[in-house]
Design goal:
The chain is an alpha/beta fold. The protein folds into three domains: about 110 residues, NAD(P)-binding Rossmann-like Domain (Rossmann fold, 3-Layer(aba) Sandwich), CATH 3.40.50; about 150 residues, 3-Layer(aba) Sandwich (Rossmann fold); about 80 residues, Alpha-Beta Plaits, CATH 3.30.70.260. About 30% of the residues lie in helices and about 20% in strands. It contains 13 helices and 16 strands. The strands form three sheets. It has a seven-stranded parallel sheet with strand order 8-7-6-9-10-11-12, with helices on both faces. A five-stranded parallel sheet has the order 2-1-3-4-5. Strand 1, helix 1 and strand 2 form a beta-alpha-beta unit. Helix 3 packs across helix 6. The longest helix is centred in the C-terminal third of the chain and has 21 residues.
Length: about 375
């Protein structure tokens, strides 16, 4: 029986997938084999020795101690793309709101309450202050062309915008999902210089932190409108506030508001609503549960942030699953242990991801005594035998 701890409420359409003859789950589960989490912070949690996997029902994993998990041989999953459409729709809403000053106009209308028959005349007199441009024909720069960025880029192109995209890690598969109308550029600077609107969909890394700052804003058009539905750390909020105050920027829309941005003229902020749709929560729950079950029952890894994707069908008697450091010569030592114990390798796959690697051997023979012998190999972190 696998114990599953749920740190947040996980949609029932996901947890209903668990076979109750194999799994038990709750928010109070002790000694779990896996944890399902949404936004709860795990950095101060004690990670038990029996914990094999953590699945984040969402894309970002900043709330999970990834390095610590890797050291303990815990696979961390996320659910890329599961909430992409929900975020895309909110980005499009932000795109329109940044242009037409809809939110400000609605707030202004509330001040007319009680004016009676004067309301109509006051509306006609005051509406010009909320005029704004149409997005059709304008240039949109999309920084980050992953699951969300690609959907935003395609949708904006269909709405008649001229779209530029930048992503140094764009894969062949990712490029195939982009409409041919997208202009792919090699640097963010080209987007800064050309675009009327810029939307951020990059991960928060040491390289991307503060990418929108006084220096980059100085390269942009004076009426640029910036949207951030990725991470608060991507922007220097002081630079945003200064640019809005001195005319260096027309609007800033974000789903990752900080205290200093609340109430600033030109800022439209949402309370992290990007993935807050029932469809998104369902998609994330289903994907997270399927990832956990595939790993616990089969040793298959898909959508891990700290280990490579590896999937090996079991045709023999067992699968030997080894999490290890990505070091030269280790695979030879693992297969040597198998040979010394009379185990025949039917199939094998080994892949690495940065400093970490995962090897799966589909074998025939008696595996009862090999786990400890493989675990004793230097740089091996964890070993599982699946029968």
């Amino acid at each position: 029986m696998y114990n599953i701890l749920t740190l947040n409420k996980i949609a029932a359409c996901g947890t209903d997938l668990f076979d109750t003859s194999k799994y038990t789950f709750s928010e109070e589960m002790a000694d779990p084999a896996a944890i399902l989490v949404r936004s709860a912070s795990m950095h101060e949690m004690e990670l038990g020795d029996n914990l094999l996997a953590i699945a984040r029902a969402g894309a970002g994993t900043n709330n999970i101690p990834i390095e610590k998990c890797s050291e303990k041989g815990i696979v961390v999953f996320n659910t890329p793309g599961a909430n992409a459409n929900a975020v895309k729709e909110l980005v499009l809403a932000g795109l329109f709101l940044s242009s037409r000053k809809v939110a400000a106009s609605m707030d202004w209308l509330k001040t007319l309450k009680g004016k009676g028959d004067e309301v109509g005349k006051l509306v006609e007199k005051g509406k010009s202050q909320f005029a704004g441009p149409e997005i059709k024909g304008k240039k949109l720069g999309v920084i980050g062309l992953g699951a969300i960025g690609a959907l935003v880029a395609n949708a904006a192109a269909h709405l008649g915008m001229e779209v530029y995209g930048a992503d140094p890690f764009l894969s062949v598969d990712g490029a195939l999902h982009l409409t041919t109308k997208i202009h792919y550029v090699k640097s963010n600077d080209e987007i800064f210089e050309k675009c009327d609107y810029i939307t951020l969909h990059a991960p928060a890394t040491p390289q991307t932190k503060g990418m929108i700052n006084a220096e980059s804003i100085a390269k942009m058009k004076k009426n640029v409108r910036i949207l951030n539905f990725a991470r608060a750390d991507l922007v220097d909020s002081k630079a945003i506030i200064d640019a809005l105050a001195n005319g260096g920027m027309a609007a800033y829309v974000t789903d990752f508001v900080t205290d200093d941005l609340i109430g600033v003229d030109g800022v439209t902020a949402f309370p992290h609503l990007g993935a807050s749709s029932p469809e998104s929560e369902d998609n994330c729950a289903i994907m997270a549960v399927n990832e956990v079950m595939a790993y616990l029952e089969k040793g298959d890894i898909i959508n891990s942030v700290n280990l490579p994707n590896v999937s090996v069908p079991m045709t023999g008697d067992a699968k030997i699953c080894v999490i290890h450091k990505n070091v030269e010569g280790l695979l030879t030592k693992v297969t040597a242990v198998a040979a010394e114990n009379g185990i025949n390798i039917e199939n094998m796959e080994s892949k690495s991801k940065k400093d970490m690697a995962y090897t799966v051997l589909d074998v025939k023979g008696n595996t009862d005594s090999v786990a400890d012998k493989i675990k004793a190999i230097d740089s091996v972190i964890a070993v599982r035998i699946i029968k």
